Amino acid sequence: MNTLHIFSKPLSTLNSIAVTSLISETDGILLMGEACFDQASYQNLASKQYVLSHCLVARGITAHPSFSSISDVEWVNLIDNAKKSITW
Q: What proportion of the chain, given as a percentage, has pLDDT over 70?
């Protein structure tokens, strides 16, 4: 994975045109915090899509089928294996 894009807010709170133009097919996205409520808006941005499991549990929701629910340890591994990460 080239870049891991980490989102903590719903896509609607960001300049979605600017954000989506910076994400390539070889990138991954990770949702955490309030971004977990907006999984549907993020689902077509990258082929590798993740959401933090403890954020889902805290909000009483489940992962969208296109997202893989991951632990904090797996999150660290994602960052370690990515060439770079960007937190939005």
A: 100
